TrEMBL record:
Species for this entry: Neobacillus cucumis
GO biological process: cell wall organization; peptidoglycan biosynthetic process; proteolysis; regulation of cell shape
Reactions it catalyzes: Preferential cleavage: (Ac)2-L-Lys-D-Ala-|-D-Ala. Also transpeptidation of peptidyl-alanyl moieties that are N-acyl substituents of D-alanine; [GlcNAc-(1->4)-Mur2Ac(oyl-L-Ala-gamma-D-Glu-L-Lys-D-Ala-D-Ala)](n)-di-trans,octa-cis-undecaprenyl diphosphate + beta-D-GlcNAc-(1->4)-Mur2Ac(oyl-L-Ala-gamma-D-Glu-L-Lys-D-Ala-D-Ala)-di-trans,octa-cis-undecaprenyl diphosphate = [GlcNAc-(1->4)-Mur2Ac(oyl-L-Ala-gamma-D-Glu-L-Lys-D-Ala-D-Ala)](n+1)-di-trans,octa-cis-undecaprenyl diphosphate + di-trans,octa-cis-undecaprenyl diphosphate + H(+)
Membrane-spanning parts: 20-41
Name recorded for this polypeptide: Penicillin-binding protein
GO molecular function: penicillin binding; peptidoglycan glycosyltransferase activity; serine-type D-Ala-D-Ala carboxypeptidase activity
Length: 700
């Protein structure tokens, strides 16, 4: 130690000489000031002046044109006026949640210190020490994450809120948007949910129970944990008595009161286009990290890709029960379908089921996982084959063949020996598809599926994938997005419903970021379109043909998981025009011997798809592909079309050259033209003045 003393002395002298203590303190002060300035700046960006109005509004869903498509309204948006309820109702909440509410300016130093030391001892953020104002700021404006950064933002926002609103206004906003469990948002809805009473008529004991629920709304739900809810009620009553909010007599009476539960419904969610709106909520939650409570209580504005004309048309088709196969065993044949803009990946319309609809229930348009059958062939087999150099006229093997332990069969149980590639696709032959995938290599097909956005499991890595044999399966949304590649020059845009989410104070909370995947070349995409046009004209999808409208597509069906019955498990139809892609699935949620589709092919689903497209084209411009069908090409129409296109290009080129010449001439003689125009205007003006002078002389 003695040897180190001189060294220590040198360090101390250097420290003092350089004034390092003062410098460190100054740096610390600068960091504190910068931090305060940063969070103050964050708080200043939030327009809390519009918070009250925003919280009283429902969340609004907008369509692609910025028009209101639906309100997502719970009856909490009507709310309660704090002046209309007994004083003990808000007092119960203040007593247990923030006893110094009427004294602090938005944050409580005592509460923060208590929470800070508790968190330090726990080693993580377990308690917030938040005031009611801070909770309002968090619930209305911030994410639910538990971090010190979020706590700091919450504190600064609370201070700003306190400067704009009175204490009663803050308390009223809080009571009208906070969650009380059981699907009840706002204290008015909670009173209906638990007591079937107007909030004006609740007793002190009932008000204390409602206030107690805020600590843990789901855990203390009296329908599930009545004794725990009553125990928490007693804690609230004791606190109210301690703070002088109720008398000893009122406390004793309220504590002895037996609370009778009566479910009056609480909150309900009203919305137009329920399946589309539910899919929007699911995307906001899964993709952008919002919670259902936030969406239903904060008055968000959610902008989407919806086309209301297409959505209404799709729902109209689903209302026509006669289009769908008759249900078996008392159950409806279910269905899910999607309409998508291929150029953006935006979902224009969707329906996720038939019959009774449950709020945010199972959505077959987006959440289904069903085997796609032959509808996957263009993605897994024919696209990678064209990329490998195969042509529409290439000959494929069509004869009984075993690939290891796998022996595929054609639906017709017949074979042609040799078949051209486009015919194998048009007639949806199974054996040639499997043979072709084996020839180009299974990995080529699996890689193609991944580019198309189709999820591939380990168990899917076999030749059965050529016929849609998948361990989990796909949804109509995924199939529509995959086929959009062919209508979009070989590019696939990420599918999405939401374009932007705006908070109650106008801050943009989330925004869609475009993501493009180059799946294949434009040449291959066009070649696939030519062959898929054949499917609709003369192939398995010919019942979807609409005169004068170019539609390309592919059908698909899956076998029943049991023998001895003629029918199918799933039926698919995926098709597209240049400006719209559609995908539809029909089947039962659970297939068994009492519940299956009566047709042995995809014939049930094709007429439904046709009706969907017929409804849709009424609202879209009639566009044509760059290519014609293989049928047309073989009939010589393609040559005529090509000749016409060449002539059009020559005419366009000539017009363009002439326009350039005219432009050059005008530019060259611009000064002369300008002088001529000015001279003409002067002469006209002079003539008009002469006429006016003559008129004046005639009428003195």
């Amino acid at each position: 130690m003695e040897k180190l003393q001189p060294l220590w002395g040198m360090i101390v002298r250097f420290w003092k000489k350089r004034h390092l203590t003062q410098i460190l303190l100054l740096l610390l002060l600068v960091v504190v000031l910068v931090t305060i300035a940063y969070f103050g700046w964050l708080a200043s960006r939030a327009n809390v002046e519009s918070l009250k109005q925003g919280l009283s509004q429902p969340t609004v869903i907008y369509d692609k044109d910025g028009e209101v498509a639906s309100n997502v309204a719970t009856n909490r948006t009507k709310g309660i006026a704090i002046s209309d309820v007994p004083k003990y109702v808000p007092n119960a909440v203040v007593a247990i949640e923030d006893e110094r509410f009427y004294e602090h300016g938005g944050f409580d130093i005592q509460g923060i210190a208590r929470a800070l030391f508790g968190n330090l001892f726990a080693g993580r953020v377990t308690a917030g020490g938040s005031t009611l104002t801070q909770q309002l700021a968090k619930n209305a404006l911030l994410s639910p994450e538990r971090t010190y950064k979020r706590k700091a933002e919450e504190l600064f926002l609370a201070v700003k809120i306190e400067k704009v609103y009175t204490k009663d206004e803050i308390l009223q906003m809080y009571l009208n948007q906070v969650y009380f469990g059981g699907g009840a948002w706002g204290i008015g809805s909670a009173s209906k949910k638990y007591f079937n009473k107007d909030i004006k008529n609740v007793t002190i004991s009932e008000a204390a129970m409602l206030a107690g629920l805020l600590h843990s709304p789901n855990y203390l739900n009296p329908y599930n944990n009545y004794d725990l809810a009553m125990k928490r009620r007693n804690v609230v009553l004791a606190k109210m008595k301690e703070l002088g909010m109720i008398t000893a007599s009122q406390y004793n009476t309220a504590k002895k009161e037996k609370i009778h539960l009566h479910d009056g419904g609480g909150s309900n969610v009203e919305r137009t286009y329920p399946y589309y709106v539910d899919a929007v909520l699911n995307e906001a939650i899964s993709k952008y990290g919002l919670t259902q409570d936030e969406i239903l209580t904060r008055g968000y504005r959610i902008y989407t890709e919806m086309d209301q004309n297409l959505q209404a048309g799709l729902e109209k088709v689903y209302s026509k029960s006669y289009l769908f196969p008759r249900g078996m065993g008392g159950k409806l044949v279910q269905s899910g379908s999607v309409l998508m803009d291929p150029s953006s990946g935006g979902v224009r319309a969707l329906v996720g089921g038939r019959g009774e609809h449950v709020f945010r229930g199972f959505n077959r348009a987006t959440q289904l996982q069903a085997q796609p059958g032959s509808s996957i062939k263009p993605l897994a087999v024919y696209t990678p084959a064209l990329e490998e150099g195969y042509k529409y006229s290439s000959e494929l093997e069509d004869k009984p063949t075993t690939f290891g332990n796998y022996k595929p069969e054609n639906f017709s149980k017949t074979f042609q020996g040799k078949v051209q590639l486009y015919k194998a696709l048009e007639e949806s032959l199974n054996v040639p598809a499997v043979w072709l995938l084996n020839e180009i290599g299974l990995n080529k097909g699996l890689d193609s599926l991944k580019r198309f956005g189709i999820p591939v499991e380990k168990g899917d890595e076999n030749l059965a994938i050529a016929l849609g044999g998948m361990s989990k399966g796909v949804s109509p949304l995924q199939m529509a997005n995959a086929f959009s590649t062919f209508a979009n020059e070989g590019n696939r845009q990420d599918s999405h419903l939401i374009t932007k989410i705006v908070g109650p104070t106008g801050n943009v909370i989330a925004e869609h970021e475009e993501k493009t995947t180059k799946v294949t070349s434009n040449k291959v995409a066009n070649e696939m379109t030519s062959m898929l046009l054949n499917v609709i004209e003369t192939g398995t999808g010919r019942k979807a043909h609409i005169q004068g409208v170019q539609i390309a597509g592919k059908t698909g069906s899956t076998q029943l998981p049991f023998s001895g019955v003629n029918g199918t498990k799933d039926q698919w139809m995926v098709g597209y025009m240049p400006n719209l892609v559609g995908a539809i699935w029909i089947g039962y949620d659970q297939t068994d011997r009492q519940h299956y589709l009566p047709s042995a092919s995809s014939s049930n689903v094709v007429p439904i798809f046709k009706e969907i497209m017929r409804e849709s084209i009424r609202h879209l411009p009639n566009q044509s592909f760059e290519v014609t069908s293989i049928n047309a090409q073989l009939a010589g129409e393609a040559a005529q079309q090509s000749k016409f296109n060449d002539q059009a290009k020559e005419i366009g080129k000539e017009l363009n050259n002439n326009a350039k010449k005219i432009g050059s001439t005008i530019k060259e003689h611009a000064p002369e033209i300008k002088n001529g125009v000015e001279k003409a205007l002067y002469t006209i003006g002079k003539g008009i003045n002469a006429l006016i002078d003559k008129a004046k002389s005639l009428n003195p």
